[in-house]
Amino acid sequence: MSDEAARDWSASGLAALTGTPDGPPDVSRAAVLSRARAVASVLSGQLGIVVDAAELLAGRAALSGLHRQGRISAGGATRLIAGRDGWFALTLARPDDVAAVPALLESEVPVEHVWPAIIEWAGRRQVAAVAERARLLGLPAGVLGETSAAAPVVRPHASRNAFQDYGRLLVADLSSMWAGPLCGQLLARAGATVIKVESPSRPDGTRQGERRFFDWMNAGKLCYATDFGQPEELRQLLAVADVVIESSRPDALVHRGLGPEDVPARDGRVWLRVTGHGTEAAHAHWVGFGDDAAVSGGLVGSDPAGSGPVFCGDAIADPLTGLHAALAVAESLRCGGGEVIEIALAAVAAEYAALPLTAGDCVARAAEPTAPALASRAGELGADNERVRDFVRERASGAC
Asked: Which of 33, 72, 183, 336 is 20 to 30 A from 318, alpha carbon to alpha carbon?
């Protein structure tokens, strides 16, 4: 079975994304794809669509031409770094992250020397202390293996309501990047009307990256732009939505009166919160992206030379979480909804990290990831505002 899983991992393109850049591809995490395929099969039955796990896990890399880089993430924004007592991952994906590095190191450093300076500084410190300081500055960080596997947290929120079909479902997708938008994309493919909600001042960051990736995640959604600082219009949309998807810090929407307890109740509504590390205590304020969250969950590959961990796949905690989030929403809807679901990237990664390692020999060559077919482009920012307002008025009046 391990040989078959290794061949599947290699053929999917995931082996080409795992391992050192100058060494053989790593197949030790082949069980991840086997498990993801099993989840995708269940989700396919729930949604009535074909869900290809390998495509979801390797599709961004194929669209962007990414390859394995060992302790540099495939996307390039995250590094695996050794401290005195272990390994941690740090992500510098945003301009604000880079700007925070002098505060992290307590010294000025030229932009071109940021990573060497961090590596030298961290090597003299314990990883827990490094991560604590990074998180105080709002930097995405993950200590290798610090997070345990955990199922999504589900709690009652409203009365249940008989679910009929996805064609009648209205989804407000306030999330950004990958995990949340993937959940919304899968619901859209099942027939739901999905509204991508963005702030004009802070749109989804993937609009500025590889456009085909943004299209892959968001084509088929209505594009709605609204000022989160003037929340009344957005509150009206959330009040009539059957599903809300958000990936903000847990208190970000609550401070604007847009949390699940602030919006008028709707029977059967499912409110999905995607976070990096959960919503409890200090973890609620930890920023997490797919690569550093995967490291936090322990989901890494191995260097054949035995010199330490390498990144597994491309931001793999993101598509895995999007897959599991869609399944959690589908199962909740099938049972009548009325729930808040909280799912954390690091906890999902930890579930996959606990799978047995594949003992097969590393393959000498691996297939490149195959790019997903793109049938259409996503809309421009705010392109469907009037149509969305019509939806809200119709639903508020009870017309649908």
From this structure: 336
Q: Are residues 4 and 86 in the same domain?
A: no
> Which residue from 370, 298, 292, 257 is spatially nearest to 150, judged by alpha carbons?
298
> What is the distance between the alpha carbons of residues 385 and 381, in angstroms, rounded to a whole number?
9
pTM of the model: 0.96
For residues 370 and 352, membership in a common domain is answered with yes
In 10 A of CB 296, how many CB atoms? 31
- For residue 245, give the amino acid letter: I
- Which residue range forms the structural domain that includes residue 113? 80-147
pLDDT tens figures, 314-338: 999 999 999 999 999 999 999 999 9
The domain tally of the chain equals: 2
Nearest to 71 by CA among 349, 291, 369, 297: 291
Same domain, 179 and 102: no
Contacts of 371 (CB under 8 A, 6+ apart): 59, 62, 63, 212
- What gap in Å lies between CA 233 and CA 225, rounded to an integer? 11
Q: Per-residue pLDDT tens for 357-394?
A: 987 555 557 899 999 999 899 999 999 999 999 999 99
